[in-house]
Amino acid sequence: MPTHREGGIWGPAGFAVAANGDLYVTTGNGDSSKAFDHGDSVIELSPSLQELGYFAPTNWATLNQDDTDLGSQAPTLLPNGDLFQVGKEGVGYLLSGTNLGGIGGQIYDQSICGGGYAGTAHVGESLLVACTDGVVRVNVAAASFSVAWKTAAGFDSGAPIVTGNVVWAVDTDNASLMGFNFSTGAQIFWFSLGSADHFITPAAAPGNLFVAAGDQLKALALV
Q: Quick check: is 32 in a domain?
């Protein structure tokens, strides 16, 4: 990162890889309030790590100053090659995968939640976004997106996963595993974990869920 300090690529979900091998990463806040320093940016890199393009919100300097990382979630690569990005500010950005657009170059943006962290799951053009105030389902169209539902329970969500018609996420505030109807967002499952770490995400195998709960690994049968 061409910044004096900070500006790390730290989102728990890592980065996105395009079909041609290009990488998309998202950075945290840099330390500049004047000259653009690639803080709070989505950056496209070649397989040899040469910069090919970038995107940054027009308020990148404010995000830098306020420690409001765009990079608290990794970019999500959509089936059509475009990208979705959300950060601590809770504003979602739809970006062109062929031209990230520079500063203010998003296709569309909209505030979707109190702040995005951890990771994002997607089923086709539907995204399940982990936020500090619950899970949000976002439906993406060609040049925009809309919020389909937001969980009624406000909780600090770990990265969600989807099995069948159920969205699973860990409530890191109350150390519980929660399940929501994929179509409506209605809560249909709840299970106490006893302990949960920040950014935690479940894993699935046929007929089972696995969740880290402090110093334990819990296995749950899907019946």
A: yes
The phi and psi torsions of 72 (rounded to 5 degrees) equal: -75, -15
Domain count, the chain: 1
188 near 169, Cβ under 8 Å?
no
Residue 109 lies in a domain: yes
Q: How far apart are CA 223 and CA 207, in angstroms?
A: 7
pLDDT at 145 over 80: yes
**Is the pLDDT assigned to residue 91 strictly greater than 80?**
yes
Taking Cα atoms as reference points, which of 112, 128, 108, 111 lies closest to residue 120?
128
Confirm whether 188 is domain-assigned: no
Can you tell me whether residue 65 is helix, strand or coil?
helix
Helix (H) or strand (E) holding 168: strand 166-171
User: Which residues, in sequence order, are CB contacts of 68 under 8 Å at separation 6+?
Assistant: 29, 40, 62, 87, 88, 89
Six-digit token pair at 97? 């995968």
This prediction's pTM:
0.94
What's the helix, strand, coil split of the chain in %, to 5? 5, 45, 50
Helices and strands (H and E) in the chain: how many: 1, 20
